[in-house]
Amino acid sequence: MAIFKWIVRVLLASVFITTGAIKLTPNLSQGIHDHMGKEFIKFATVFPLKYIGLTIGPERYMRIAGIVEVTCAPFLIIGSGSLRTLTGLALTVTMLVAIYTLYALQYKPAEFIPAIVCLGLLILDGYFLDIDANYGGFDTKRTKLS
Question: What pTM was computed for the model?
Answer without folding.
Answer: 0.81
